[in-house]
Amino acid sequence: MPYMTAQHLFAAFKLLAGFATVAAYLTLNRKTQIQALTPIDVMGGLLIGGMAGSTVYQPDTAVLSYLAQLLAAIGIMMLLNRFLYPAARPSTTDKALSVIINGKLQPHLLKARTPFHLPDFMAQLRSRGIYSLREVDFAQIEADGTLTVIKHGEGRRNFLLAHKGQILAGQLKQIGRDANWLIAALAEMGIELEDVFLAELANGNELYVVRNNAATAVNILD
Fold it and tell me: What is the rounded CA–CA span in Å between residue 196 and residue 207?
């Protein structure tokens, strides 16, 4: 019985160590809400859970070895989030699905291979108090699955054209522009693409730019 008690205490300690490691990672990286988690965080959490599950009831596993494995997993997650995820993020940002533009249902959604499902879309509209497509001026399913809707007369949507020096080609395509146009518009403001933290088109003709040093600039386009 003493052996079993010691074994159970050791297992509880390893579980607590795993929880504490993950909690410290989330707290230090300010990821206290689920929206802040990246796919790398989710996969890393599953990996750490598997590590804890495979070692928690193995009394011959050294504590230092177990802690080293946890720290190594956390280190890999931090490196991937720091270098890999920012490089891949612009491509995921561009994967939003525009459903209605200028009050018109987009024809490409009628193709069988698109991920669009009209009954689900209509249900989401009804949950917002919208009971007819005729009320909608713009609707878009974002990359994270949320729905953005603008009704007729509610104003115009904004477009995120660049982020952290990366051009979002999909957003430019929606406004009928390309990368050369954006670079030229930034040049008129005396700004290089590498200096851009955020470039946004608002109200149809206002190019709002936030630089990496937090300075802002606005250009009214013709």
Answer: 12
Assign domain 159-220 to its CATH architecture.
2-Layer Sandwich (3.30)
Please give the full DSSP string across 101-132, using - where no structure is assigned: ETTEE-GGGGSTTSS--HHHHHHHHHHTT---
Task: Give the E-state strand segments of the chain in sequence order.
Answer: 97-101, 104-105, 136-141, 147-151, 159-163, 166-167, 196-202, 206-211, 216-220
pLDDT tens, 138-195?
898 877 678 889 998 887 788 889 988 889 888 888 888 999 999 999 999 999 999 9
CA–CA dist 21, 66 (Å, integer): 11
For residue 83, report the phi and psi dihedrals to the nearest 5 degrees. Answer: -115, -40
For the segment 22-68, what is each residue's pLDDT rounded down to a tens digit?
Answer: 788 778 777 766 666 777 888 887 877 777 777 766 767 677 777 88
Domain ranges in the chain are 1-84, 97-151, 159-220
Which DSSP letter does residue 34 get?
A: G
Question: What gap in Å lies between CA 204 and CA 207, rounded to an integer?
Answer: 9
**87 vs 198, which has greater pLDDT?**
198
Are 77 and 41 spatial neighbours (Cβ–Cβ below 8 Å)?
yes
| CATH topology match: 97-151 vs 159-220 | yes
Is-above-0.85 flag for pTM? Answer: no
Give the single-character DSSP code of 222: -
Q: Please state which CATH class domain 97-151 belongs to.
A: alpha beta
